[in-house]
Design brief:
Elements lengths: L7 E5 L4 H12 L3 E6 L2 H11 L2 E4 L5 H15 L4 E4 L14 H29 L2 E6 L12 H21 L4 E7 L24 H13 L8 E3 L8
Parallel strand pairs: 1-2, 1-4, 2-3, 4-5, 5-6, 6-7
Helix pairs in contact: 1-6, 3-4, 4-5
InterPro entries: NAD(P)-bd_dom_sf (IPR036291), SDR_fam (IPR002347)
GO molecular function, one term: oxidoreductase activity
Protein name: Short-chain dehydrogenase/reductase SDR
Length: 235
């Protein structure tokens, strides 16, 4: 199994929910975590626990994306893992969406993934190793009413990661994609624990364990896709 001790991992959307659970678990496994989110106060509270690096940033801003990578390399001198977790969602009938809300969803879910991958891929290719993990959604594989914007963004993010996987695999770089179902978290203005979600929702820690699983797989093992089933909590 791959040892995560002293590996440096960027985790986006790390201030709460799934991203926070991933950051805490990776730190527990000995990784040096670079936590990225827009909320500085929540990041600092997390960083007090992970003892890594907190970078307030907007993943949809190209300068911010490059700054994240530059600061990481300056602080730790290496970079091994990128977890693209930052995501937003909004659900409504198509005719009730305005262009600004559509753009916001695509900026975070798709453009943010693109910009962070673009920033790390040259470094990963040059060193002949690295692992990108994308947290998409089970709606990357299905459609539902009121899900035009969110679903389209997740289909796009999934295609981006699948294409990138083919580009970087010859250079020793891995790309893994995780597809959670419903998660009891802050997504779409929800409050964790506010629903009777024990049997119908995953916990953020379930997704974090899936990330750990793909990262710790032996170097020769490639796990392209990992679907998480919320009812059985099996993967």
């Amino acid at each position: 199994m791959t040892d995560l001790t002293n590996q440096v991992a960027i985790v986006t959307g790390a201030s709460r929910g799934i991203g926070r659970a991933i950051a805490l678990l990776l730190a527990l496994q000995g990784a040096k975590v670079v936590a990225v989110a827009r909320t500085a106060e929540e990041l600092e509270e997390l960083n007090a626990k992970t003892q890594g690096l907190a970078i307030p940033a907007d993943v949809a801003d190209e300068d911010d994306a490059q700054h994240i990578v530059t600061e990481t390399l300056s602080r730790f001198g290496r970079l091994d893992i990128l977890v693209c977790n930052a995501g937003v969602g909004s659900f409504n009938l198509l005719e009730h969406f305005d262009a600004a809300e559509w753009d916001r969803i695509f900026d975070v879910n798709v453009k943010g993934t693109f910009l962070l991958c673009k920033a790390v891929v040259p470094h990963f290719k040059a060193q002949g190793r690295g692992h990108i993990v994308g947290i998409t959604s089970d709606v990357s594989k299905r459609t539902f009413e009121h899900g035009t914007a969110y679903g389209a963004s997740k289909f796009a993010q999934d295609a981006l990661l699948a294409s990138l996987r083919k580009e970087v695999r010859p250079h020793g770089v891995k790309v893994s994609t995780i597809y959670p179902g419903l998660v009891d978290t802050y997504f779409n203005d929800s409050r964790p624990g506010s629903l009777d979600a024990e049997k119908t929702h995953l916990k953020p820690s379930d997704v974090a364990q899936a990330v750990r699983y793909v990262l710790e797989a032996p170097a020769h093992v490639v796990i392209d896709e990992l679907m998480l089933h919320p009812i059985t909590q099996e993967w």
